[in-house]
Amino acid sequence: MKLIRTVDAEGAVLCHDVTQIIPGTFKGPAFRKGHVITKEDIPVLLSIGKENLYVWEKKEGMLHEDEAAAVLRDLAIGAHMSASEPKEGKIELTADCDGLFKVDSGALRLVNRTPQMMIATRHGNTPVRKGDKLAGTRIIPLVIEEQKMNDLSACVREATGGRPILSLHPFVHKRIGIVTTGSEVYKGRIKDSFTPILERKLQEYDTEVVGHEVTDDDDRMTTAAIWKMVGLGADVVLCTGGMSVDPDDRTPLAIRNTGAEIVTYGAPVLPGAMFLLSYLQTEGNRTVTVCGLPGCVMYAKRTIFDLMLPRILANDRITADEIAALGEGGLCLGCSTCIWPNCGFGV
Description:
metal-binding; Molybdenum Cofactor Biosythetic Enzyme, Chain A; elongated; six-stranded mixed sheet; transferase; Molybdopterin biosynthesis moea protein, domain 2; 29% strand; metal ion binding
């Protein structure tokens, strides 16, 4: 840094905060470290007694914190996101639409293992709404070596295959078919209380229910009902009831008999251990997601279904390994005031 006269400081970058005191009214920074001085700033600086200033001296091979923050921004930002203007080495990213937020955790760690810089994000694989804050970047020192930023960029792009660290997948309109199983409902002994709960959850997203069938404890009837939903154009079929291992709970068998690829029957999530996820390929080359939902979805505030539904609605194909990884964080604590997805459940 170097000391210059304030009257000559236009375009220079402050190396320190400049404090202003207005008796009885204000005491604080009039200008912060890293501020680029404008012509209009000079009279203000002189009025608070700053005739000389320490400013950053541009050197070859060094980047100002805001320039370096822009490098982190470009590594992180994906489609459907907006970035704030750099300020004091910080940039914030926000969502431009409703969707599923995802993070390349390995690439994020590459950045955060590199001294003098960081990116902090919300949890990946969670739903966000337009305008939500997604991430913030920060360069720690006022200046940083340009080569360090270039080296980091090369490592991150190699790790991601050139993709951004963060991505936002817009939710897609989905047609939903519901198949309710169980002789007690089919024969009218009890009222179907599961479907209204599903409908309320689906209303949180861009969905429409195109059909609803109720079946007996007969796997063939349930298989036929699933195919009927597919024929009605359903993109997702949700089967309720009959998901335990009791001999008369045959919904998993009915789903398997459709020819669907079973990703998992069982998940390390509580509530939701008896969840089934599968993908059914139709003759028209459509992929229909078929789920078997355990009874907990009917009475628990948040379950495995809440973790899976945003991914299904964003066309984000789910693997068995990803479901296995839910074991860490897969225990819902049943808080009296639920703040999901802004908590640790499922992440």
